[in-house]
Amino acid sequence: MSIQQQQTGSSHLIRISGRLDQAQTPQLEAVLNSLLEASHYHFIIELTETTYINSGGLRSLVSAWRKARQQAGNLILFGLNERLQEIFSMVGFDKVFQIYPDAAAAREAMQKIVNNAL
After folding, report:
1. DSSP the chain
2. Which of 45, 78, 111, 112 has the least CB density, counted as fewest CB within 10 Å?
3. What pLDDT is stored for residue 118 in this prediction?
4. Contact (CB, 8 A) for 25 and 64
5. Rounded-to-integer distance, Cα 51 and Cα 71, Å
6. Sheet with 2-8, side-by-side order of all strands
7. Phi, psi for residue 80 in degrees, rounded to 5
């Protein structure tokens, strides 16, 4: 698994590839917490190359989402494969997160969020 992060305008794009399970969740938490501590609150999470996510990975995303929302930010997702969509739906997180099919739709949605926060 790898996690890549880059700033795109006023948001941060975080690409997660491979399995997001108990071995990799601490790495994701470290990246997200580091950004949150540096007062960054707008995240776009790309899951197009993520093959699996367990409860720890889900918990990391929800925790960062909550912290971002407390600061008028957000964490949105895109690129979920069929299995990930099933997992998010099964635990009800498809109702929590804004989930988009591709990068363009996610960037557009985040830009609206950022503009509304100004």
Report:
1. -EEEEEEETTEEEEEEEEEESTTTHHHHHHHHHHHHHTT--EEEEEEEEEEEE-HHHHHHHHHHHHHHHHTT-EEEEE---HHHHHHHHHTTTTTTS-EESSHHHHHHHHHHHHHHH-
2. 112
3. 67
4. no
5. 30
6. 2-8, 11-20, 42-53, 74-78, 99-100
7. -70, 130
What would the two tokens of residue 72 be?
Answer: 């008028």
Radius of gyration of the chain (CA): 13
Beta-bridged to residue 42, according to DSSP, are: 74
Q: What is the pLDDT of residue 8?
A: 85
32 phi, psi to nearest 5 deg: -65, -45
C-alpha torsion angle, residues 77, 80, 83, 88 (rounded to 10): 20
Question: 85: which 2 tokens?
Answer: 């969509």
Q: Give the CATH architecture of domain 2-117.
A: 2-Layer Sandwich (3.30)
Mean pLDDT by 10 residues, the chain (118 residues): 88 95 93 96 97 95 97 96 95 96 96 84
Do the Cβ atoms of 93 and 58 come closer than 8 Å? yes
